[in-house]
Amino acid sequence: MFAYFIDDNIYGRENDAFWVRGESSAELLLRAPISIEAEANLSPPRSLRIDKLMVHLETGPKPNRVTVTTNGEVRLVEMAASSRQSFELSMPAGVPYRPDPQFPTNYVYRLSIRSETGFVPMFESGSGDSRFLGVMVRLVPHYAEPD
C-alpha cells in the first residue's frame, strides 16, 4: 500500500508506523497497488483494492481520544496513557486511478486520523525528541480483487 500525506500533521515514518501530531487531524490518501507491485510473480498485473484496513494505535504518557475516519466509517477510540489498541475498518469502494494506460487501475482511499491530545517526549522522559506527538499509527491492508 502507498500512503500520501496531504498535510504537515504527520511525522515521518518510523519503520512501518508514523506519528500523528498532537491535537491535530492528519489527512492521508491510501493507494492499493496492482498485483505486480504487491507480489513477485509472473502472472499478468491485476487491480487490487483495500477491502479492510487493520489500524494499530499506540499512545504516549497521556490519555488520548483518537478518531479514524474513512468515507464509509468513523471510529472513536478512547485510549489510556501508554496503551495500544487495534481494530479493523471496512473500506469503501475507493476511487479509480489509472496513471498509465499500460497498467490496471489503482484504487485510492481517503483516511483521516485525529488526535485530541499530545505530549513532548523531551518533557516526559528526558529524551532529545522535541516533537509534539499525538498517536502512533500502523496500517495493515487486506487486499481483494475488484468485482
Structure summarized in a few sentences:
This protein is mainly β.
Account of the 3D structure:
This protein is mostly beta strands and 147 residues long. The chain contains 2 helices and 11 strands; from the N terminus they run ββββαββββββαβ. The longest helix has 5 residues, at 121-125.
Topology of helices and strands:
Elements: E1 2-5, E2 10-14, E3 17-21, E4 24-31, H1 35-38, E5 49-59, E6 64-70, E7 74-79, E8 84-90, E9 95-97, E10 106-115, H2 121-125, E11 133-144
Which outline best applies? elongated
Helix content: under 10%
Overall number of strands: 11
End-to-end Cα distance, whole Å, is 19 Å
Number of helices, counting only DSSP H or I runs of 4 residues or more: 2
Unreliable stretches? none
Largest sheet, described in full?
A: 6 strands, antiparallel
Gyration radius, in Å: 17 Å
Write down the overall mean pLDDT: 90
Strand content: over 45%
Name the helix and strand elements from N-terminus to C-terminus, one letter apiece: EEEEHEEEEEEHE
Helix-strand makeup class: mainly beta
Keywords:
single chain, 147 residues, mainly beta, six-stranded antiparallel sheet, five-stranded antiparallel sheet, 6% helix
